[in-house]
Amino acid sequence: MAATASNKRVILKRYVTGLLSEDDMEVVTMEAPPLAVPAGSEAVLVKNLYVSCDPYMRNRMTRHEMPSYVPDFVPGEVLANFGVMRVISSGHRDFKAGDLVWGITGWEEYTVINNPESLFRINHPKLPLSYYTGILGMPGLTAYAGFFEVSKPKKGEYIFISAASGAVGQIVGQLAKIIGCYVVGSAGSDEKVSLLKTKFCFNDAFNYKKEPDLEAALRRYFPEGIDIYFENVGGETLDAVLPNMRLGGRIAACGMISQYNLERPEGVKNLFYIVTKRLRMEGFLVFDFYDRYYQFEEEMAGYLKEGKVAYVEDVVEGLDAAPAALIKLFTGRNVGKQLVAIARE
Amino acid sequence: MAATASNKRVILKRYVTGLLSEDDMEVVTMEAPPLAVPAGSEAVLVKNLYVSCDPYMRNRMTRHEMPSYVPDFVPGEVLANFGVMRVISSGHRDFKAGDLVWGITGWEEYTVINNPESLFRINHPKLPLSYYTGILGMPGLTAYAGFFEVSKPKKGEYIFISAASGAVGQIVGQLAKIIGCYVVGSAGSDEKVSLLKTKFCFNDAFNYKKEPDLEAALRRYFPEGIDIYFENVGGETLDAVLPNMRLGGRIAACGMISQYNLERPEGVKNLFYIVTKRLRMEGFLVFDFYDRYYQFEEEMAGYLKEGKVAYVEDVVEGLDAAPAALIKLFTGRNVGKQLVAIARE
User: Fold this and answer.
1) Degrees, nearest 5: CA angle B211-B216-B218
2) Which key words tag this protein in UniProt (chains A, B) (predicted)?
3) Domains of chain B listed by start with CATH number
4) Mean pLDDT of B140-166
5) Min distance A185 CA to chain B CA atoms (Å)
6) A90 CA to chain B: closest CA distance, Å?
7) Which residue in B has a C-alpha nearest to residue A232's C-alpha?
8) Are A298 and A267 contacting, i.e. CB atoms less than 8 angstroms apart?
9) Pairing of strands B280-283, B245-253
10) Integer Cα distance of A260 and A232 in angstroms
11) pLDDT tens-digit series, residues B185-231
12) Is the ipTM of this complex over 0.90?
């Protein structure tokens, strides 16, 4: 059986403690899988076009004594995450060669996917395919489900979003604007703040690195208090938010990126406000909302086609650049949704 | 107009920082109010029979820059809290002399209540009247609403309760048993642990002071994890609970007594489990559930009459003993619901 020439991939070199570095990963070239799945197999062979860099990957690089919500990566094995793929060969009745799909794949050129039931079809291939790693993929559904289902917004409410120019934050903010909320975002550079105000049309935005007293800053931006905090960062930002929440406020806990590279998480001191302000803080994972995906895809594709939402990506070219791209998430050097283009068709 | 001879009361001497001490309060004797409310007034004059000692009173003794959920006490003025009272004179059409009521009153012998709309009638006066400071009053409704409305239990779920022999904890545990949950409580002495197991029929209970590793202890008591944590203490207990929660678990945040005497609260480090385990942590205040009170009173009075729930009180006699009784809550020396008997009829 013919084989692709080779298969470049990014592997985890060792379990990571502390700050992730490029040296924790390695780009290697392997023998490629056969060009067709074996007869009788229900697997699909895909060519990876784009793969996504997402903060939660850092958690998978730490060895967990107790099983976490996603399996740990294994040193020596290829990294995996959401990607956009072209099916090359399929043993599964739902897919055929040529199909465009998105879902979990390897950080490599070609991947054999043994559970193709996990893949989503791409129904709007005329939109940029890379969007299916972001606004039309996992981060988009995360923003949509977390905002509407978890934080349960009402028109006119005050919304604060941290990491607001990131893959999820930029979408939450725009969805909040669409339904008539007042939206302020924080980000870690003036360039990102400018994006939030001009491109994403937030009501206001600020550079948290320039605010020595974050609690006071939030009091300035939200003199009436915050109804919904879309939590992407955790730690001291959460501590500054809690006293600024309004009675009955909601905190949709999507991620806590400020904590992922710490050996010991920061302590959050202001939790008693959860009692006195009757707050609801609720975590969620996008996996629990996969059954809404196609409904979401239609709605978001519509917004994109109508120009109702903007979207900013930060794309690096090729797997050799992938380790550095992943690290950018934690140093805040990405501007917009970070992804890797493996092959442009 | 005739007057009662005198009116003994407990006043706050100064705003409190750090650990509450008896010296922060003072028992003084004042001129008593007139024996009848003035013509035209809608106030009621009550004779206080029992007053409740509740942890939240500590928060009112600290000066808050921003208004909190209840007003701060004022140095020099009488302390106030829930009590059981006999109406002596009423200018309000809903009350007449002789009525038994419960609600917010002063820590004193006689109080003029200017907003009698805030009072609840006592519909089961043949049960011990003191119960209306506890199982039939604010702590009872707190337990009932927090457990059923906030934590939304299902039969067979695993429930952990901290400060479990306290006013609220003992009731939550017994309600959980009634609907078929598995209930474990923690408390701070072997005597309390024994109460939990024998009197309140918890499935299990432990003395947290004898557990050097609380997280490991909870893993032993809940090998399947915790569905509902009824949070009364905060701080390191919360940190130990979070990794032991099950997917989709709920934390009903009722209070955080371990933190009330600290100038700077402890930091809680394990909040990321809120995301990975999709937890909901929700604060509540009993005030939001007052409209259910009479329904609750009937249900709980029924349980008491049928012997379905047990109830343990820790009663001190007289206002002179009230400051020390309040402090017992924070040193853990009370056994069961702490209250002060001012006058036994």
Assistant:
1) 85
2) Oxidoreductase
3) 7-134+312-341 (3.90.180.10), 138-287 (3.40.50.720)
4) 97
5) 21
6) 33
7) B275
8) no
9) parallel
10) 11
11) 999 999 999 999 999 999 999 999 999 999 999 999 999 999 999 99
12) yes
